């Protein structure tokens, strides 16, 4: 069993008042490998959040199948197993924190799973240390900054020791510093603890950190590959309502002006090197 | 401005009262309140007042904080006092037009005012020394036997702790909406009662809409963290009675019983 999550021809339509359904996902087939870091990109309404909700059985596909570690998300009896395997972090930290003390909130999932008290204490401390919020364990969540709240939310999920974490635009409501805190934490979880990460975002710079980028448009997978491969397709990305990282943007503009430059520079250093090499 | 609400606030500390099991404190407060209503005589009031002052000293809460907590009920206390003063039948000491003050009236007024103030101080002391989460925990535990009668004990406790959790969030939001409305010329401070009430409507509508949206998102987030009701749930913090809890309980029950017996003998 090497695939963390398998989506097979997944279609989903939101029920509407008239009963006529609009397809939000239109036939998605995707494998997410164990231990990988996948970024899912797409503009608003591309279906990326709907996709996220399929990964741990919040939504069940109207057609097709989602398998989490081999478990079908349509199987009600396995729902708890699926949810402890795939944890989910949402956009607004305020609306996912349940308790009014940090450590109580981190303990919430474990309490639901019926873990003994001493084990809860151990795992809560471990999770809080991992996200660097241990000193704040007795604080009230509403007094924390956005980035800190989001890290508490992440701790609440990793306390379950999931194999995979899905983050649905976790940085959309944060300031740049909060965003860095969250991305650094997520990156570390993936590298050091081998947790599979699915990061839903519309920030190109965040996607550039991932090992694989999936671009969605109109409920379909438009592109799928490494950040370098995907970001070279500047015009297609623009057509899908997405921008490219600033570095690629610059190189692309220069190339359009007739300069012979590669497009696969993602960091500022690489970009500077590329231009430097051309000038010499 | 909405943040100055002190009623029901918790002041973290490490006093004996803080360390008592929340269940002990809850039971003792209930006993205190019941006893307060059986008290008829100066002696009973004296004992209960001494008990309360003793508890306040033990809690390490500054008297100023308690007075501030009592402030919102001053008007109620004054009105109750005046009503008791004038409407208690007895031998008039002093009369004017249709009003007359009786010795019984003075007595009743003083006792009633004292009773209300002590009652509120007692409950304030409970909330000042017990974190809301522990308090809801204690209620859940104490009400557990009611599960047999199909009272949804766990659900009630969960609702209460979520409500407590969202009070600051929604207050923040109210402040923001108010500022936004003010920036567009809304006026919340002038006009009569009706006009002010009507001015609140454009505040309440967006607040409610947002509260429902939050509730929806929270429900999904809770499901994602495997919430499936109270069945098979364990807790991070397990409540355990310590020796001090038994001692405090014995002391509180003995005192309550003593004062009640005094009341029965008309003292």
From TrEMBL, chain A:
GO terms for cellular component: ATP-binding cassette (ABC) transporter complex. It is found in: Cell membrane. It comes from the Bacteria. One of its GO terms (biological process) is cobalt ion transport. It is a peripheral membrane protein. PROSITE patterns: ABC_TRANSPORTER_1 (PS00211), ABC_TRANSPORTER_2 (PS50893). One of its GO terms (molecular function) is ATP hydrolysis activity. Keywords: ATP-binding, Cell membrane, Membrane, Nucleotide-binding, Translocase, Transport. Residues 5-243 form the ABC transporter domain. Pfam families: ABC_tran (PF00005). Probably part of an ABC transporter complex. Responsible for energy coupling to the transport system. Part of an ABC transporter complex. Responsible for energy coupling to the transport system. NCBIfam families: cbiO, ECF_ATPase_1, PRK13648.1. Belongs to the ABC transporter superfamily. PANTHER family: ENERGY-COUPLING FACTOR TRANSPORTER ATP-BINDING PROTEIN ECFA1 (PTHR43553:SF24), HEAVY METAL TRANSPORTER (PTHR43553). This is ABC transporter ATP-binding protein. It comes from Papillibacter cinnamivorans DSM 12816. The lineage of its organism: Bacteria, Bacillati, Bacillota, Clostridia, Eubacteriales.
UniProtKB/TrEMBL annotation, chain B:
Its main location: membrane. It comes from the Bacteria. InterPro entries: ABC/ECF_trnsptr_transmembrane, ECF_transporter_component, EcfT. GO terms for cellular component: plasma membrane. Pfam families: CbiQ. It is found in: Cell membrane. Coiled coil: none annotated. The keyword Transmembrane helix applies. The chain crosses the membrane at residues 26-43, 49-67, 74-99, 105-128, 246-265. Keywords: Cell membrane, Membrane, Transmembrane, Transmembrane helix, Transport. It is a multi-pass membrane protein. The keyword Transport applies. One of its GO terms (molecular function) is transmembrane transporter activity. Transmembrane (T) component of an energy-coupling factor (ECF) ABC-transporter complex. Unlike classic ABC transporters this ECF transporter provides the energy necessary to transport a number of different substrates. Belongs to the energy-coupling factor EcfT family. Forms a stable energy-coupling factor (ECF) transporter complex composed of 2 membrane-embedded substrate-binding proteins (S component), 2 ATP-binding proteins (A component) and 2 transmembrane proteins (T component). This is Energy-coupling factor transporter transmembrane protein EcfT.
């Amino acid at each position: 069993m090497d695939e963390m999550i398998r989506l097979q021809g997944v279609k989903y339509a939101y029920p509407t008042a008239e009963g006529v359904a609009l397809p939000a996902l239109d036939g998605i087939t995707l494998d997410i490998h164990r231990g990988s870091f996948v970024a899912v990109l797409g503009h608003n309404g591309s279906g990326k959040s709907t996709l996220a909700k399929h990964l741990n059985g919040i939504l069940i596909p109207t057609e097709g199948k989602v398998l989490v570690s081999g478990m079908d998300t349509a199987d009600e009896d396995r729902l708890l197993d699926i949810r402890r395997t795939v944890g989910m972090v949402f956009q607004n930290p305020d609306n996912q924190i349940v308790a009014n003390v940090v450590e109580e909130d981190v303990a919430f999932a474990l309490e639901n799973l019926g873990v003994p008290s001493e084990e809860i204490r151990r795992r809560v401390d471990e999770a809080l240390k991992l996200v660097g919020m241990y000193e704040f364990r007795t604080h009230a969540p509403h007094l924390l900054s956005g980035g800190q709240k989001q890290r508490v939310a992440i701790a609440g999920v990793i306390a379950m020791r999931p194999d995979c974490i899905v983050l649905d635009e976790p940085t959309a409501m944060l300031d740049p510093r909060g965003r860095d805190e969250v991305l650094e934490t997520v990156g570390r979880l993936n590298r050091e603890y081998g947790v599979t990460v699915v990061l839903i975002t519309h920030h190109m710079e965040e996607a550039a950190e991932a090992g694989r980028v999936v671009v969605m448009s109109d409920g379909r997978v438009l592109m799928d590959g490494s950040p370098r491969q995907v970001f070279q397709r500047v015009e297609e990305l623009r057509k899908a309502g997405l921008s490219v990282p600033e570095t690629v943007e610059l190189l692309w503009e220069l190339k359009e002006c007739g300069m012979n430059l590669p497009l696969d520079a993602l960091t500022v250093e690489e970009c500077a090197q590329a231009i430097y090499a051309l000038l010499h | 401005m909405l943040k100055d609400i002190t009623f029901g606030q918790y002041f973290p500390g490490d006093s004996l009262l803080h360390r008592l099991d929340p269940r002990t404190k809850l039971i003792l407060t209930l006993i205190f309140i019941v006893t307060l209503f059986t008290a008829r005589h100066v002696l009973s009031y004296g004992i209960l007042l001494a008990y309360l002052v003793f508890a306040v000293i033990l809690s390490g809460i500054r008297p100023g904080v308690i007075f501030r907590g009592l402030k919102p009920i001053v008007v109620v206390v004054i009105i109750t006092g005046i009503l008791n003063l004038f409407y208690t039948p007895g031998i008039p000491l002093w009369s004017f037009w249709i009003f007359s003050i009786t010795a019984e009236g003075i007595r009743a007024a003083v006792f009633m005012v004292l009773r209300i103030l002590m009652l509120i101080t007692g409950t304030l002391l409970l909330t000042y020394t017990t974190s809301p989460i522990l308090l809801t925990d204690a209620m859940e535990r104490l009400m557990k036997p009611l599960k047999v009668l199909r009272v949804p004990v766990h659900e009630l406790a969960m609702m209460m702790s979520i409500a407590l959790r969202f009070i600051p969030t929604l207050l923040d939001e109210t402040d923001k909406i108010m500022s936004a409305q003010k920036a567009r010329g809304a006026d919340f401070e002038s006009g009569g009662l009706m006009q002010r009430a009507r001015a609140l409507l454009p505040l309440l509508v967006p607040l409610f809409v947002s509260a429902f949206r939050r509730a929806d998102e929270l429900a999904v987030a809770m499901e994602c963290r495997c919430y499936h009701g109270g069945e098979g749930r364990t807790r991070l913090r397990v409540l355990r009675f310590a020796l001090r809890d038994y001692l405090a309980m014995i002391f509180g029950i003995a005192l309550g019983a003593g004062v009640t017996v005094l009341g029965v003998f008309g003292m």
